[in-house]
Amino acid sequence: VFDVLVIGGGPAGSAASIYAARKGLNTGVVAERFGGQVADTVGIENFISVKVTEGPKLVAQLEEHVKDYDVDIMKSQRATSLKRGEHVEIGLENGAVLKAKSVVLATGARWRTMNVPGEQEYKGKGVAFCPHCDGPLFKGKPVAVIGGGNSGIEAAIDLANIVSHVTVLEFADTLRADEVLIRKAKSLPNITIIKSAQTTEVLGDGNKVTGLVYKDRTTEALKTVELAGIFVQIGLVPNTDWLKDSGIELTRFGEIVIDAKGATSIPGVYAAGDATTTPFKQIIIAMGSGATATLGAFDYLIRLGQE
Ligand code: FAD
To answer: Which residues are noted in the entry as FAD-binding (predicted)?
Structure first.
């Protein structure tokens, strides 16, 4: 029986594991793919105290740091169920069941993609998902934001400060963002909003994005916009499908509901990072929340059996 079993090996899970091991707790970490989203990231310039790094390099450093401690690392393993009995029981895809006194859920999230030609090819070469991360790379250049929900309009307002021009493309004939955000976006001279626009292709020169093609859904006409960057803002999906039958409280978006100590609705079950209700999804925030969740679990463990 583990004292702390961490599910997920991204920044949140790595921090949770290290904090648990440093408390002398019997710690395990189950990760489908160690490193998580960081493994897919090209340049990272906002991991404070490290001016510039790259995803794969940071992943190797995370793993090296976790391996410095007595942590049972179970890679290429997928958790498929969570049940609370005497212990917390985590079922794995391979049929094994792991038992733990406490668990930290850190299974992260994934950006929803447009699934159009060119999108995968130009990921990290103009196709971006995180304005906080990649906005400054497009300083003074024109970009598009795909999606007119809150995250899309927030991204457009944010980017308008940095880039030369932002074109927002929304599939529907109305924007789904809050009225106050729409008003703010409309007040900025370098934001253009196009509704009923379906992006059909990302264009590039082989090295980087040069534009996109969209279909005007009212006339069916195809139009081209010249751009240096495309921010896809059509949703961040938490990796929590496997928790749907566990009884754990999730929001309607599938985010795990946590309190200030990372505690979920199930005693002994904590959560951290992009899979949770944390409002901002960033590496440094995921690491902090992983530390918080383990310290929350530690508080829980030292009280176990003392009632
Ligand atoms: P993740 O990194 O998503 O890790 C989740 C972990 O859980 C993985 O190990 C995964 O394999 C595992 N997992 C998932 N489901 C299961 C399961 N059922 N069983 C077992 N394991 C499972 N942030 C920044 O701060 N700066 C940047 O420059 C930056 N750039 C980014 C660029 C891109 C392209 C992307 C996609 C994201 C970027 N981010 C950036 C965001 C940042 O990567 C995330 O906020 C951060 O990785 C979240 O950490 P996490 O540990 O919560 O989740």
So the answer is: 3-18, 264-274
